């Protein structure tokens, strides 16, 4: 026998259950702590909460993080890397200006801070333009003061508009709220960010797009496609486990990620995702929302073909796994 | 096991009222259960035609008794129909999608045809009716009525309430073809059947009444509910017959609806739950099925079994890892069926004839009759005894059993052991198999299952036997492995200085069952390595750096590089990694599971002897750093305090450097945390240095036997910073944790730094701070078990059907491909770590020689 076939997995092996156990069992040993990326984002979920987040296929992680690697010429020096980081970091209006309402006059005053504008490298007129794009009506720009006269007069709407104005995107990449230049193991500098925007950064010529990474798996799926998302999932799951010093074979993580992504979109583990789409009525009823599944099955006249594990356990038959997978090919009699 | 018949599929459908009446063996007419003589009333809810639950009575339908009669359905004729509450959403959907006047679907005929065609060709499931935009029916041009559902069961048409009769007539008039388009199979589920006219009454065996000690009967919740329905139904009938005003009739009708609704689901939103006299909400049909304690999860997905035992476990290092010690009392109680053949008939006869353990408890004749073996029955049994009989004999040594400890988080939580009957009252377990079960002996209990047929026995022995599970599929490393004292033993036994006299060597080898004595390698003496090598297979070649390499200063220390050449230990002292993983795993992969088991059994026996003779203890002295070091430690703590104070001063003067992205206050916290952790680190190096490597506590920590350096630091030097949510302590009073501190004191001591060691003891405030940290970790553990338990349940449920097929692809039960080749390479995680070649250097040396 060759070494390869010696190592081969056996046919019928219930790899799904083994994978689920291998990932689930260490869950009891995981910490609940959040991780602190100094300077970028606090309270990044790690351990069990992060694993649950991944498995739930949430629309957005609690703390999106990106690692931006730079092209050779920028990665070598800290200064150049810092300059890129500064370009990328998203600046909002309240960072460069003081925004206040004048309820008596029913208007909003935006006082620009010249020093801040300078450090951020933006011109006042540009700011005014962006404000105009949002507020639309009656925007006056005089020196360092932009006055907005909202069309609505209700105080609540003015406050709402003010809050919106404060978040107006002035410069940088949207959603990237913080950046930090980090020296990597190879001595090169890369940028770690809080917030994630894969699509925009893919277009940035200074960024080494091949290594650009976000921990937002859903975003990876949207921008780079499902296979990239599958790889990202494997990497994220493995990383969570590794960080806790829990040794789990990647193959288990791969099976989980493949199961979650096999339909072309990321499906969660649970009643709204994979488990909700299982073939058997009994299997779904035994998992969650028992009555709902039985009622639906009855109205549609559904069939349970008893092909899954749970269904056969319920009626007390051999489960189609391992030795139970073997069937007679020829029907006798 | 011979499978004669198998369930191929299960069809779900609705019962039509006609079907219910046809199935029913009793029409219930009396809203009562038993008469004064506690005999079931005819036509009552405990009618004998629905089965029996009282001993002595016979079922009027099948003639069976409690044991043999499965029970039969009955039915109640409702005077006025009511809506089945669980179907109200479905009914609502149909009403909205159809015309109130012509009862056709609110779609053009060609749209209907198109949808029907697509459903038949299986291209699309459940197409949505796009009838919302229309204002009139495309068939009869009637204006579309606005239908509203007031949960749970009231329907309104253009603001007017619809009676269930109205709803039923509407549903009944919808043609079959249109229903198919809505996703219904009208043959199995006509929508008008969702309105109840005949209510199924479950058999009495489904809702048995219980007799209390006082002799009173207590009826099942379902029976109570059915009585309610019957009562109101009769009152409604009486009122209708008496020509009562419509208002009263509708009120009663509504009341029947309420009782039927709660009969199906007593947790229906928007209506108050029906309650028992005691105020406890009734457990009705839906509640019986739902949730963890419901029928599905409690009785169908998990079943209770016979031939099982449970008791406390205790350790026994003298039995094999694949054995389990079973108390006499348990062995006498449990039985194994043995099929009598011409080859074992004498042995079987011996069991039948025997009066004491091991004896036969029962004999099953070829005709299936089971006879208890008693002194009187014995003779009669033996007259016809022969092949074809089955003897149920008591458990004896070597029988195959399954052993389990909850929570069963992974497959090694249930393994197959062979029986070893021992005196005592507990299950005995080799401590080496503790890790897979996650068991200890502080009162843990475990379960035992005796296998009852050959097929199961073979399968268990081949797949679940302990030695086949030595390597965990989770990471491909050993999970069944000697730990703690065995590791210490291995270290002391194999280190360079370990030498044994001839008689000692003989003794040790005898412990391992080896009778050949090698030639002494140290003059008259035998080195530990030489003796240990006797246990290793000749094929074993290992070269690994020891865990100790960094720990000890001298890199040319003979103990720090472990070399095994052709099964002979050349150098190195074993520690946890080399003993548990390298050697054990290689033996498993090269020599097989059984050899690995033997290696564990034999080496643990030997090492246990080594460690018990040499002795290994830890005392208070092990944690004394000496007067000089204590002084140094105090100085270090003073320095730390000063540093912290300085940082606080900087903070107050606003001269503290801000860390990127943090506020000044946060920067201070960060800085202090750095200072305190640095202090602990330097305390650590000091402890390590002053306790020295001759210290048993340190040795155990270093070789991975027990404890860690942190434990030693906390005991010998100081406990260190306490934290809640990874931050220094702040909770308690305003600006301070305890009143013993000044308000807004940011100093180390006030914010949870424990200067004392466990050896010197904690001051009251330190003790309090330490418990704050301790509390958090307790709370976290509780939350974590719940959360990870649910996550694992979901993972298992989502992935359980995935199996490797013949072509190595992974597919789910539907046959959908998940992976084209398992893990991308088709390799088994258990075998993935097999080292195919001898370590590079050993090979080269061989070549040179």
3D architecture notes:
The complex is a heterodimer of chains A (333) and B (849). Chain A is 43% helix and 17% strand. Chain A contains 16 helices and 13 strands. With 849 residues, chain B is of the alpha+beta class. Chain B has 26 helices and 30 strands. A six-stranded mixed beta sheet of chain B has the order 10-16-15-18-9-17. A four-stranded antiparallel beta sheet of chain B has the order 11-14-12-13. In chain B, strands 3-4-5 form a three-stranded antiparallel beta sheet. The model of chain B has no long low-confidence stretch (mean pLDDT 87). Chains A and B meet through α2, α3, α13, α14 and α15 of A and β1, α9, α25, β28 and β30 of B.
Q: What topology does this entry show?
A:
The complex is a heterodimer of chains A (333) and B (849).
Chain A: H1 3-6, H2 15-24, E1 34-37, E2 41-45, H3 47-56, E3 65-69, H4 72-75, H5 78-88, E4 91-92, H6 93-96, E5 97-102, E6 107-112, H7 114-120, H8 124-135, E7 139-142, E8 145-148, H9 155-166, E9 169-171, E10 178-183, E11 189-194, H10 198-202, E12 213-214, H11 217-224, H12 226-243, H13 250-261, H14 281-287, H15 290-300, E13 303-304, H16 309-315
Antiparallel strand pairs in A: 1-2, 3-11, 3-12, 4-9, 5-6, 6-8, 7-8, 10-11
Helix pairs in contact in A: 2-13, 3-12, 11-12, 12-13, 14-15, 14-16
Chain B: E1 10-11, H1 17-23, E2 74-83, H2 88-97, H3 109-120, E3 147-150, E4 154-157, E5 160-162, H4 164-172, H5 176-181, E6 195-201, E7 210-211, E8 217-218, H6 221-241, H7 246-264, H8 285-289, H9 295-300, E9 308-315, E10 323-327, H10 328-333, E11 335-339, H11 345-353, E12 360-364, E13 370-372, H12 375-384, E14 390-394, E15 400-404, E16 414-422, E17 427-429, H13 434-437, E18 445-450, H14 454-464, H15 485-494, E19 499-500, H16 502-511, E20 526-527, H17 528-533, E21 542-545, H18 548-551, E22 561-565, E23 568-571, H19 576-591, H20 593-614, H21 627-652, H22 664-691, H23 696-703, H24 709-716, E24 720-721, E25 723-724, E26 727-728, E27 753-754, H25 764-799, E28 803-804, E29 810-811, E30 817-819, H26 840-848
Helix pairs in contact in B: 6-7, 15-20, 16-20, 19-20, 21-22, 22-24
């Amino acid at each position: 026998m060759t070494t390869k076939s010696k190592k081969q997995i056996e046919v019928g092996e219930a790899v799904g259950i083994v994978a689920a156990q291998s990932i689930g069992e260490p869950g009891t040993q995981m910490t609940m702590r959040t991780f602190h990326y100094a300077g970028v984002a606090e309270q990044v979920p790690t351990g069990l909460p992060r694993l649950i987040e991944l498995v739930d296929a949430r629309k957005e992680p609690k703390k999106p993080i990106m690692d931006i690697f730079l092209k050779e010429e920028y990665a070598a020096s800290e200064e150049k890397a810092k300059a890129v980081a500064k370009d990328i970091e998203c600046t909002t209006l309240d960072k460069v200006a003081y925004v206040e309402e004048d309820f008596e006059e029913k208007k909003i005053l935006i006082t620009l801070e010249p020093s801040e504008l300078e450090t951020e490298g933006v011109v006042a007129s540009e700011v005014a333009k962006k404000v105009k794009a949002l507020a639309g009506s009656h925007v006056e720009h005089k020196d360092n003061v932009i006055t907005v006269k909202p069309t609505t007069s209700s105080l609540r709407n003015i406050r709402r508009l003010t809050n919106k104005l404060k978040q107006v995107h002035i410069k940088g990449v949207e959603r990237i709220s913080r950046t930090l230049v980090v020296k990597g193991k190879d001595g090169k500098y890369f940028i770690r960010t809080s917030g994630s925007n894969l699509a925009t950064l893919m277009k940035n010529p200074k960024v080494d797009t091949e290594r650009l990474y976000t921990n937002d798996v859903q975003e990876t799926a949207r921008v780079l496609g499902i296979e990239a998302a599958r790889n990202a999932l494997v990497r994220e799951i493995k990383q969570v486990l590794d960080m806790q010093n829990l040794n789990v074979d990647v193959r288990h993580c791969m099976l989980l990620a493949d199961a979650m992504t096999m339909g072309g979109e990321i499906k969660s583990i649970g009643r709204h995702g994979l488990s909700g789409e299982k073939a058997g009525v009994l299997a779904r009823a035994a998992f969650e929302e028992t009555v709902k599944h039985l009622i639906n099955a009855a109205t549609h006249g559904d069939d349970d073909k008893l092909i899954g594990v749970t269904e056969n356990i319920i009626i007390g038959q051999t489960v189609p796994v391992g030795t139970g997978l073997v069937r007679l090919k020829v029907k006798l009699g | 096991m011979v499978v004669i018949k198998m369930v191929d599929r299960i069809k779900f459908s609705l019962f039509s009222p006609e079907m219910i009446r046809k199935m029913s063996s009793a029409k219930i007419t009396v809203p009562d259960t038993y008469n004064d003589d506690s005999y079931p009333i005819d036509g009552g809810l405990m009618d004998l035609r629905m089965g029996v639950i009282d001993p002595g009575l016979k079922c009027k339908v099948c003639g069976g008794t409690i044991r043999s009669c499965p029970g039969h359905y009955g039915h109640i004729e409702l005077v006025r129909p009511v809506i089945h509450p669980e179907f109200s959403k479905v009914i609502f959907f149909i009403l909205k999608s159809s015309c109130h006047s012509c009862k056709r679907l609110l779609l053009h005929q060609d749209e209907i045809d198109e949808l029907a065609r697509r459903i038949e060709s299986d291209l699309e499931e459940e197409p949505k009716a796009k009838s919302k935009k229309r204002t009139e029916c495309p068939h009869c041009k009637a204006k579309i009525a606005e239908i509203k559902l007031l949960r749970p069961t009231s329907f309104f048409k253009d603001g007017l309430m619809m009676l269930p009769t109205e709803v039923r007539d509407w549903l009944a008039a919808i043609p079959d073809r249109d229903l198919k388009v809505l996703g219904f199979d009208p043959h199995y589920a006509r929508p008008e059947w969702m309105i109840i006219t005949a209510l199924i009454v479950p058999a009495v065996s489904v809702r048995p009444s219980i007799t209390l000690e006082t002799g009173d009967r207590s009826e099942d919740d379902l029976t109570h509910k059915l009585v309610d329905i019957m009562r109101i139904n009769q009152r409604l009938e009486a009122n209708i017959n008496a020509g009562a005003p419509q208002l009263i009739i509708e009120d009663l009708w509504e009341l029947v609806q309420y009782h039927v609704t709660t009969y199906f689901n007593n947790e229906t939103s928007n209506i108050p739950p029906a309650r028992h006299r005691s105020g406890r909400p009734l457990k009705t049909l839906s509640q019986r099925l739902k949730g963890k304690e419901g029928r599905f999860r409690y009785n169908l997905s998990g079943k209770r079994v016979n031939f099982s035992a449970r008791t406390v476990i205790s350790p026994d290092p003298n039995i094999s890892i694949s054995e389990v010690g079973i108390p006499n009392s348990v062995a006498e109680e449990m039985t194994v069926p043995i099929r009598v053949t011409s080859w074992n008939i004498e042995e079987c006869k011996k069991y039948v004839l025997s009066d004491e353990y091991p004896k036969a408890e029962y004999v099953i004749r070829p005709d299936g009759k089971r006879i208890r073996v008693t002194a009187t029955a014995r003779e009669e049994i033996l007259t016809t005894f022969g092949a074809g009989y089955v003897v149920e004999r008591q458990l004896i040594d070597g029988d195959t059993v399954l052993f389990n400890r909850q929570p069963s988080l992974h497959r090694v939580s249930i393994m197959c052991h062979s029986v070893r009957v021992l005196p005592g009252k507990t299950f005995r377990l080799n401590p080496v198999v503790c890790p897979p079960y996650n068991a200890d002996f502080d009162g843990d209990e475990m379960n035992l299952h005796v296998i009852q047929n050959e097929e199961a026995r073979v399968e268990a022995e081949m797949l679940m036997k302990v030695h086949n599970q030595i390597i965990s599929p989770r990471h491909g490393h050993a999970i069944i492995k000697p730990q703690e004292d065995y590791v210490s033993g291995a270290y002391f036994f194999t280190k360079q200085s370990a030498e044994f006299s001839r008689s000692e060597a003989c003794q040790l080898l005898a412990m391992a069952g080896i009778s050949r004595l090698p030639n002494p390698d140290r003059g008259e003496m035998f080195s530990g390595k030489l003796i240990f090598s006797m246990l290793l297979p000749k094929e074993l070649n290992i070269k690994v750096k020891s865990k100790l390499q960094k720990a000890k200063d001298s890199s040319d220390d003979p103990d720090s590089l472990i070399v095994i050449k052709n099964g002979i230990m050349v150098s190195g002292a074993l520690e946890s990694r080399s003993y548990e993983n390298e050697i054990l795993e290689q033996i498993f992969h090269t020599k097989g599971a059984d050899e690995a088991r033997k290696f564990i059994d034999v080496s643990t026996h030997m090492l246990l002897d080594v460690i018990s003779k040499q002795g290994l203890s830890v005392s208070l002295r092990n944690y004394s750093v000496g007067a000089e070091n204590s002084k140094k430690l105090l100085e270090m703590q003073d320095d730390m305090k000063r540093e912290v104070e300085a940082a606080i001063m900087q903070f107050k003067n606003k001269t503290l450097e801000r860390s990127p992205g943090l506020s000044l206050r946060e920067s201070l916290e960060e800085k202090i945390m750095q200072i305190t952790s640095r202090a602990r680190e330097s305390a650590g190096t000091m402890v390590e240095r002053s306790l020295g490597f001759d210290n048993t506590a340190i040795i155990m920590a270093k070789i991975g036997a027990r404890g860690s350096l942190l434990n030693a630091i906390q005991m010998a030097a100081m406990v260190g910073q306490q934290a809640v949510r990874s931050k220094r302590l702040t909770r308690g009073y305003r600006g301070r944790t305890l009143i013993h501190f000044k308000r807004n004191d940011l100093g180390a001591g006030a914010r949870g730094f424990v200067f004392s060691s466990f050896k010197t003891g904690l001051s009251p405030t330190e003790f309090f701070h330490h418990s704050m940290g301790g509390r958090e970790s307790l709370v976290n553990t509780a939350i974590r078990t719940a959360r990870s338990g649910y996550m694992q349940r979901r993972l298992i449920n989502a992935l359980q059907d995935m199996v490797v097929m013949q072509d190595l692809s992974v597919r789910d039960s539907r046959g959908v491909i998940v992976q084209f080749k398992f893990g991308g390479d088709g390799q088994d995680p258990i075998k993935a770590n097999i080292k195919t070649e001898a370590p590079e250097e050993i090979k080269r040396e061989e070549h040179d020689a």
